[in-house]
Records
---
Amino acid sequence: MAGVSDFRFVQYLALKTDSAWRRLPEEERRRGRAELTQELESGDGIKSYAYSTLGLKTGADLFLWRMSDGPDRLQESLGRLLLTGLGKYLQVTHSLIGLIRPSTYVRRQDSQEQAIFEQERQRYLIVYPFSKTTEWYLMSKDARQGMMNEHMRIGHEFPKVRQLLVYSTGLDDQEFIVSYETEDLDAFQQLVIALRDTEARRFTLRDTPIFTCVYRSVPETLALLG
């Protein structure tokens, strides 16, 4: 059986709850939440983490981070998920996909730079699609490496923030999915402010929408939906 480190295909899903869900009888909602929980926790070649985005982003109440060895299992699981009692009242509003692969700018990544395979999740997850300009890729490798060295040096000044990088080039609209984990949102915001002053910032084409997510157990996360 594949281990978590073999799950190189990553999917981030933002889902919105239909307001009709909260008007259902409590017992029906309880069964619906239990069905969806069972699907998310069933495994079947998939690792899933659930986050609440309730009130933090328009069009997103629930955020799922899922990993597998390819898209096939994830598609089949999502099909089952959307047929559960709660799933019938959920709409996928954003989907981001990509692959985990070694960085071209880092020889040896530590757990701060690529924490995607860590077993313990931190309280907050921040996720956004990211693309560079054409001019970035027309520069020499040495020029790009120099700017990325500055970027990584600043990142190491904020040890409370862990990065998770996914490559989407050719698979989705963005080139990367940039994610950060932290227990301290203030430290994360300070990191972002510092990175905006770097030379590499000139070559950012897209870095929105940004999803700020709160990690909870699956039952706790779904309970917030009603």
---
Amino acid sequence: MYSQNELNHIRWQCRRGMKELDLLIEPFFDEDFSKLSEKEQQVFVRFLEESDLKLFRWLLRGEIPADPEYVALVEVILKCHRERSGI
């Protein structure tokens, strides 16, 4: 479980400065992060340490991360985005 300060820090890390990423990552954190298991939350926090270019390629260009935990997380993020967007 994360403290409020830790959650605020994670929320800040979700702000990537690239609109395309912000439209995926920030809503995911706000609406879906709390529904993840503790392990999945840890993977998400680690995922945010990656470069914007990697995140862009994985989330928007369909490239597959080498880390299987990231593969699963990308699928969850995109699924949640599709559900929110009605796609």
